[in-house]
Amino acid sequence: MLKDFLIAPGPTAVPSEVLIEMSRPIYHHRTPRFSQLFMETIELLKYLYQTKQDVFILASSGTGAMETAVVNTLSPGDSVLVVRSGKFGERWGEICEAYNVSPAYIDVEWGEAVDPKRIEDHLKEHPDVKAVFTQYTETSTGVTHDIKKISDIVSKTNALMIVDAITGLGVTKCPVDEWKLDVVICGSQKSLMLPPGLGFLSFSEKAWKANESSTLPRFYFNLKAEKKAQSNKTTAWTPAVSLIIGLHKALQMIKDEGIEEVIKRHKIIADAIRAGVGALGLELFAKSPANSVTSIKVPEGIDGLQIPKLMRDKYGIAIAGGQAQAKGKIFRIGHLGYIDKSDVAVVFQSLEFTLRELNYTFEWGSSSKAVQEVLYPEYKKLDIRKA
Ligand SMILES: *Cc1c(COP(=O)(O)O)cnc(C)c1O
After folding, report:
1. Residues 110 and 133 occupy one common structural domain
2. Using one digit for the tens of pLDDT, what is the confidence trace for 129-176?
């Protein structure tokens, strides 16, 4: 038997509490029963987003929510600014180009965060920019961008601040209203502890204003239709009922834990992972590392593709390799969503076995010691769980 662990930056593990809810018999979505569940879920989603503005649930992966943000705010030929610091930044650009929006790019070296000053300078020179697109955390490189600082700049202009927070929301602080973020994207299979299949976004007053003059074609992803349906306590099209039932449960779990506690948990686990990595003499790839995913440089002389392969096939641990230009050069450990401190031990035991098998030299057992130094004080201050 090989027990499987999902330690990837998406999809992530789904708690059994959520799986049980999703396995219940399906019911019709045009009913008071669904309406009640749906509206409660919308309210819980607003709690996660820390917003009083509109939030939407779409039957699509995260990329569908990204496309929704573009087609509901812009018109052909509009100037926009795209931060391109990895695979997902490239995706913003590809969506814009597919719809004949005109993106200018701020290219950031993979592994680095964008300097907010570059955005400020561009907006000063090009006051016609309609939107700034960025990631909160660029999952392909493991970098966190300073979204608060960027939004402080963008919110003072006419441009919309559109953030792909798919591995940021529910991991790192992201108070949407307080930080004046206009559109914030999320997806089900990352921090939300659900299978893939749902996309989410928040949509500010400023975004609705842009929506009025936006002429890009849209049909399925039409937020005006969704808003109208939501005012009638339902969705425009057939919703992914079982996933929404699961979402209700997962968001309730997040609310019961408390968003601040959820953020703290991710921070402690990320600290422990980084400590373990450092103890093995490995180097982080990201200059400002995210709390959702740790990207690690493949040490000299080791076949980088073998690390995730051995981890998966021999130890049952699904981590991720590098994408595109980072392929074979980095590997990535995901630590978001349904993850607890105890999972860290599982990662490093198999990572040490894997690295030894690949003839990498390090001090045997050093990662557990480093992890324990970080986690023990956290456990020590915990109350014994009440029965
Ligand atoms: C996972 C992810 C996406 C969405 O990808 P889908 O495969 O469409 O769900 C987008 N942006 C980031 C930063 C991601 O991590």
Report:
1. yes
2. 999 999 999 999 999 999 999 999 999 999 999 999 999 999 999 999
Which of 63, 92, 138 is the best mutation target for the ligand 1 pocket, counting ligand atoms within 8 Å of the beta carbon and taking the most?
Answer: 63
- Angle at CA 345, nearest 5°, toward 340 and 346? 90
Residue nearest ligand 1's atom 9 by CA: 62
In angstroms, what is the span from residue 161 Cα to ligand 1's centroid?
18
Which range marks the domain in which residue 241 is found?
A: 16-257
Domain end among 257, 272, 300: 257
Q: Give the pLDDT confidence of 80-102 residue by residue, as tens digits.
A: 999 999 999 999 999 999 999 99
Nearest CA to ligand 1 atom 2: 166
Are residues 44 and 251 in contact, defined by beta-carbon separation less than 8 angstroms? yes
What's the whole-model pTM score?
0.97
386 domain-assigned: no
Is the residue at 359 inside a domain?
yes
* Residue where a domain stops, chosen among 229, 257, 285: 257
Residue 139, ligand 1, Cβ within 6 A? yes
Q: CATH no. for residue 337? A: 3.90.1150.10
Residue 243 Cα to chain centre, angstroms = 18
Q: Are 228 and 54 in contact (CB under 8 A)?
A: no
Q: What is the DSSP letter of 118?
A: H
Joined tokens for residue 37: 């569940």
Classify residue 174: in a domain, yes or no: yes
Q: Is residue 270 part of a domain?
A: yes
Q: How confident is the model at residue 387 (pLDDT cuts 50, 70, 90)?
A: very low
